[in-house]
Write a structure and sequence with these properties.
Length: 327
């Protein structure tokens, strides 16, 4: 154990993701096991600036592993983007004798941690908590599996009404600028087509696929649209398709923030627990400026720079498979 680290702060930042509480629990209990003092920063970087910290004991994280959201709350802080805001945040950490921080979040969270740790001598280790699954350096991010299961469950229900009414449904799922949720939802729900940022599918190509379905006497179709799709979201794609192809009664469903909430799946709970434990171990072993992730079932450390700048593309074989299975 590093003799220099006696007090650790943990916080969640950016969009919430199911499993964040499980990660907090793992950080607190691992830190307590190593006789460290552990503090929670409420409302992310905004709370760091305003000194909103509280001591966390083992009992404080009891009965939270199954809960969605985050007990530490989360926020996006424009003030932290400024040198003055980061200076205030540093003063808070120094005033509370914080030796190191565990940041749970996504791209924006790690961008802030990367800048801050370069400006001030306080080590940060990150835990990937985002439903988008878009961070380089880990096969899966905390919250992705739960969001995916929520989306597939919603599409399964939409399928029932689509089948009953001979309808074409465009279903928009979250994911920011990545298509991980959309692609896997499409495969898992047996959708007719999937539109994602990583693969260019024109409106004409989509209509051609839909017409092939009509020739096979397909009574309904489901099209999954990633919110970052280059042709537009589900509403825009549906509008363009309807102008050229009106065989089906066309409807649009935007699942939206339902995907962020709910009790985390077992996969997310185990992943979060594993990464929370590993984050504390990383700090005690002198690691800083890194994100802990799991690649091929092994814990790996990836620099913040790489995690936020390197592209984690969807697998081309999955895209091809989705197209084949949708025939």
């Amino acid at each position: 154990m590093s003799k220099d680290i006696k007090r650790i702060a943990v916080f969640t930042s950016g969009g919430d993701a199911p499993g964040m509480n499980a990660a907090i629990r793992a950080v607190v209990r691992t830190a307590t096991y190593h006789n460290l003092h552990i503090y929670g920063i409420v409302r992310g970087y905004d709370g760091m600036i305003r000194g909103n910290l509280r001591r966390l004991e083992t009992s404080d994280v009891g009965n939270i592993i199954h809960r969605g959201g985050t007990i530490l709350k989360t926020a996006r802080s424009e003030e932290f983007r400024t040198p003055e805001g980061r200076h205030l945040a540093h003063e808070t950490l120094i005033a509370n004798d914080i030796d190191a921080c565990v940041a749970i979040g996504g791209n924006g969270t790690f961008t802030g941690a990367n800048i801050f740790s370069k400006e001030f001598d306080i080590p940060f280790v990150g835990i990937p908590g985002t439903i988008d699954n878009d961070l380089y350096g880990t096969d899966y991010t905390i919250g992705f599996d739960t969001a995916l299961n929520t989306a597939v469950d919603a599409v399964d229900k939409i399928r029932d009404t689509a089948d009953s009414h001979n309808r074409l449904f465009f279903v928009e799922v979250m994911g920011r600028n990545s298509g991980f949720i959309a692609l896997n939802t499409g495969i898992g729900s047996g959708a007719s087509s999937v539109l994602i940022p990583e693969s260019s599918t024109s409106i004409d190509d989509l209509i051609s696929r839909l017409k092939k379905g009509v020739k096979r006497k397909k009574l309904f179709s489901l099209v999954i649209v990633a919110e970052g799709n280059k042709s537009g979201g589900a509403m825009e794609v549906a509008r363009q398709v309807k102008e050229k192809f009106d065989f089906y009664d066309t409807k649009v469903t935007i699942i939206g923030h339902l995907q962020r909430g709910g009790s985390p799946t077992v996969l997310d709970r185990v992943l979060a627990s594993r990464l929370g434990h590993s984050a504390v171990d990383a700090l005690l072993n002198g690691k800083a400026g890194v994100m802990v992730g799991v690649i091929n079932d092994k814990v790996r450390h990836t620099s913040f720079e790489d995690a936020i700048s390197k592209e984690k593309g969807v697998k081309q074989e999955l895209i091809r498979m989705a197209e084949i299975l949708a025939l």
